[in-house]
Design goal:
Length: 388
């Protein structure tokens, strides 16, 4: 999905527009008991309450693709029960209670399986957490685009029908001293709905239309995918390796295959080149997020001075870990907004625009990381003087 695709859906979730008809919810205890279920007409909601709901739904459309947002693919040749359920939910726009309850049931099963996998402790009751499952269905016209890239509001030949699902922890809010009834006293404890830890959009968008064989899964923790959720909600649909695992795998791959050629200069050059590519891609809001193939990364390493022997070793390892013809999100190879250097005892973060101030040298027989003191130097906020 392109940035424009996400933006169009988020605009539908603008509280001031009140576009989706209703919000559906299921409140579940830590033991898996349904405490409440509801349908709330959007037109009847107080503004502040609606703003909170819409902020929750927008959150599952937020993040980097390949990290917080992962495409989940269904088989086009062997449809499974989850695909059939999603198709019915989309067709009815969540208006059929039996179908909606099937979705809530699959999420509840995932929550209970995840709970069973948690380490048991004596104070487990203190960490018990209820959950609010939210969903909404919506549809809008897909307009054609003119040659200049602008939307032609007078030309629509299709509808994009979708639904969103969010899984939100509900936690007790700590009691606080508050002014009420003309005096200060402890305010009663209340339950607070947190932002979603996971959720999904179905179907994903492709070239303005619907890709019915793909859902877009959201996870708050980019380093981990909830396998129980994926299994119970999506069935055997394929989910890419979590962004955190991809980052770790790529770092290990570079370190082990490049060995002594994995230098500061090579990493600086790779960071600069990939960061530039990501920025250029982002400028085109109709373009999909940048992904890199094994061939592209290998060629980049070669251009940065890595020997053929090492690039071939990297290529073999890439294919073994990710599969032949696989592509990885560029953001899992490079974080454009940061350049981090770490030793076992020191960590340095450098503005990527000034990473050329960092170099490596051997001084008096010791390997050193050298930082050019360009301008004022502060220690704990205090300007210091550097000796000659």
């Amino acid at each position: 999905m392109t940035p424009r695709d996400f933006s169009e859906i988020k605009r539908r979730l603008d509280p001031s527009k009140r576009l989706p008809d209703e919000i559906c919810g299921c409140y579940v205890s830590d033991e898996g008991e349904i405490l409440a279920s509801f349908r709330k007409p959007v037109a009847m909601l107080p503004q502040e309450e609606l703003e909170r709901y819409m902020a929750i739904f927008r959150r599952v459309l937020t993040g980097n693709q390949g990290q917080q947002l992962l495409p989940v693919g269904f088989s086009a040749t062997q449809p499974e029960p989850a695909f059939d359920l999603f198709t019915r939910l989309r067709r009815t726009r969540l208006r059929d209670n039996d179908t909606l309850n099937e979705l809530f049931g699959s999420v509840m099963e995932a929550l209970q399986e995840e709970k069973a996998s948690r380490p048991q402790s004596m104070d487990a009751d203190k960490h018990a957490e209820s959950t609010l499952i939210l969903a909404l269905g919506d549809a809008f016209d897909v307009y054609r685009r003119r040659r200049d890239g602008e939307t032609d509001r007078d030309s629509s030949d299709a509808m994009y029908t979708y639904f969103l699902c969010c899984v939100c922890p509900v936690r007790p809010r700590r009691q606080e001293l508050a002014y009420q009834g003309g005096d200060f006293s402890m305010a009663p404890e209340s339950m607070e709905v947190a932002m979603p830890v996971q959720g999904f959009l179905y179907p994903a968008r492709e070239q303005g239309g619907a890709d019915i064989y793909t859902a877009m899964y959201y996870t708050k923790n980019a380093a981990q995918v909830d396998e129980a959720f994926v299994t119970h909600v999506f069935g055997t649909a394929t989910v890419p390796m979590p962004g955190g695992e991809q980052q770790e795998a790529l770092c290990t791959m570079l370190r082990e295959t490049l060995a002594e050629e994995c230098s500061m200069e090579v990493m600086q050059a790779v960071h600069e080149r990939v960061s530039d590519m990501i920025r250029e891609q982002k400028e085109d809001r109709q373009a999909d997020p940048l992904t890199l193939s094994c061939t592209e990364v290998t060629q980049m390493l070669s251009d940065c001075g890595v020997s053929q022997e090492k690039t071939e070793a990297f290529s073999d390892e890439f294919d073994e870990v990710f599969g032949q013809a696989a592509e990885v999100p560029a953001v899992n190879l490079v974080s454009p907004g940061q350049f981090k250097i770490a030793t076992p005892s020191v960590s340095i973060r450098v503005d990527p625009a000034h990473k050329d101030l960092i170099s490596t040298r051997t001084i008096d027989g010791q390997r050193c990381i050298v930082i050019l003191a360009d301008g004022a130097v502060e220690v704990n906020g205090v300007n210091i003087a550097l000796g000659e």
